[in-house]
């Protein structure tokens, strides 16, 4: 039986629903392929080499950028822009919205990013190094490529959107944060349609690999498919990935008016801060963030059917999140937990959005995808209901809670409901 959350008591003008999903990921470039590979236990991690760092591993997207962009626009723009443009166009095309006739000044674009501009700056420095650092060879495209609003702005240019566009910098909580911003702006009446979620071009900057390696947090494994292994006793770090996960959001009243296919309703969210460390998470604050999201929705912990975990494959981070989860869900025998990063690594700003997207089909097929690569579960990561190595059929999938946490202690939680 569906719990009666507070959202259902709101007028339709204040209820926000997801009516389309667009994505590109190391597991596929559309929802059908992505979900099929998740259920099949297919890894998207592969060997990768990048300047100065050398051979490593990454989750790499393989899509035809020129399907939605000219070759000139691809050269002029950024990888973050291209993954976002792909996902945004796919999102709109699958939504049933009459895009050619809508008022594009009433469309908002809200894109979460972990970081932006590092790729372009590294590339320019590498280029002028060959000219004795003569800055006359520095690209005049550098400034528009590196401004913080670039990924959202490239989508707006590509799709002729004249409404608000901006990015939300929220470290690895950014995918959730972009979605939250879209919900808020719809409720405020700032837009009528929101394209919201997260993007990442992180694999194209050597700095992120070098930094994780110096931190002792960059995953290694003889078999790339087994490198990303959250919760496993032998986990040894993060696999960096790229991608984009975007949602088309509408007020329920508008979605009903056009007889839209409603995928899910966003019923609650919460964002808080650890305020304790640059990198190390705080399980108490994470638990408080989850509890705040539940409280805002009027839900109990045992109303949640699936928890999509953030766990990245680091020794301390995974254990700290599991401690937070045990605090909140210790009396919830029908709540199941999984992890999407085990399949494709950490897509940074896109991670939260892609992980939520991968779990949404569970509301229809009642199958919880697994966490793969758990050969020897770390006792510190033991959670009742953790789905390991094989998908699990479940009796109910009405509520999904999506965890997404990031550096500088930012925590985010989104809860969605089957409509």
Topology summary:
Elements: E1 16-24, H1 31-40, E2 45-50, E3 54-59, H2 71-76, H3 79-93, E4 107-113, H4 118-129, H5 142-146, H6 150-159, E5 165-169, H7 174-188, E6 193-200, H8 206-215, E7 240-241, E8 243-251, H9 252-257, E9 264-273, H10 283-297, E10 306-308, H11 315-329, E11 336-338, H12 341-344, H13 351-359, H14 362-365, E12 367-368, E13 392-393, E14 399-406, E15 410-417
Structure summarized in a few sentences:
With about 425 residues, the chain is α/β, with parallel strands linked by helices.
Could you describe the 3D structure shown?
Helices cover 32% and strands 21% of the residues. It is α/β, with parallel strands linked by helices and 419 residues long. Helix 3 crosses helix 6 and helix 7 (174-188) crosses helix 13. The chain is globular.
What integer is the average pLDDT? 97
Strand tally is: 15
The CATH topology label of the largest domain is Peroxisomal Thiolase, Chain A, domain 1
The share of residues in extended strands comes to: 15-25%
Order of helices and strands: EHEEHHEHHHEHEHEEHEHEHEHHHEEEE
Note the total helix count: 14
Helix content: 25-40%
Structural class: alpha/beta
The level 1 CATH classification of the largest domain is Alpha Beta
Tell me, what's the shape?
globular
Taking all Cα atoms into account, the compactness measure Rg is 20 Å
CATH superfamily of the largest domain: Thiolase/Chalcone synthase
> Quick one: biggest sheet?
10 strands, mixed
């Amino acid at each position: 039986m569906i719990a009666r959350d507070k959202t259902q008591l709101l007028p339709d003008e204040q209820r926000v629903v997801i009516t389309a999903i667009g994505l590109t990921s190391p597991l596929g470039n559309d929802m059908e392929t992505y979900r099929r590979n998740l259920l099949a236990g297919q890894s998207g991690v592969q060997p990768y080499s990048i300047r100065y760092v050398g051979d490593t591993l990454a989750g790499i997207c393989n899509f035809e950028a020129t399907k939605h962009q000219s070759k000139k626009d691809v050269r002029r723009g950024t990888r973050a822009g291209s993954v976002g443009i792909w996902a945004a166009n796919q999102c709109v095309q699958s939504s049933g919205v009459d895009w050619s006739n809508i008022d594009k000044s009433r469309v908002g674009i809200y894109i979460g990013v972990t970081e932006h501009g590092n790729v372009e700056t590294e590339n320019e420095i590498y280029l002028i190094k060959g000219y004795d650092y003569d800055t006359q060879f520095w690209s005049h495209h550098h400034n528009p490529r590196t401004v913080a609003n670039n990924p959202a702005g490239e989508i707006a240019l590509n799709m002729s959107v004249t409404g608000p566009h901006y990015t939300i910098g929220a470290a690895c909580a950014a995918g959730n944060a972009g979605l939250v911003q879209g919900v808020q702006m719809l409720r405020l009446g700032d837009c009528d349609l929101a394209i919201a979620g997260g993007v990442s071009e992180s694999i194209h900057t050597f700095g992120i690999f070098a930094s994780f390696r110096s931190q002792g947090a960059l995953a290694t494994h003889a078999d790339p498919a087994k490198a990303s292994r959250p919760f496993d006793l032998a986990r040894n770090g993060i696999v960096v990935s790229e991608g984009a996960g975007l949602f088309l959001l509408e007020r329920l009243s508008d979605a009903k008016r056009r007889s839209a296919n409603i995928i899910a309703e966003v019923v609650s969210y919460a964002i808080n801060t650890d305020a304790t460390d640059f990198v190390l998470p705080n399980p108490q604050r994470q638990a408080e963030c989850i509890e705040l999201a539940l409280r805002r929705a009027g839900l109990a912990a045992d109303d949640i059917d699936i928890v999509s975990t953030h766990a990245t494959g680091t020794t301390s981070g995974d254990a700290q999140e599991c401690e937070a989860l045990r605090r909140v869900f210790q009396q919830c025998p029908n709540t199941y937990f999984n992890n999407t990063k085990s399949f494709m690594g950490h897509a940074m700003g896109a991670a939260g959005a892609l992980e939520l997207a991968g779990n949404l089909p569970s509301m229809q097929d009642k199958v919880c995808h697994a966490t793969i690569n758990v050969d020897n579960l770390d006792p510190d990561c033991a959670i009742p209901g953790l789905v390991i190595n094989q998908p699990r059929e479940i009796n109910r999938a009405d509520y999904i809670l999506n965890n997404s946490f990031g550096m500088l202690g930012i925590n985010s939680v989104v809860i969605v409901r089957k409509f």
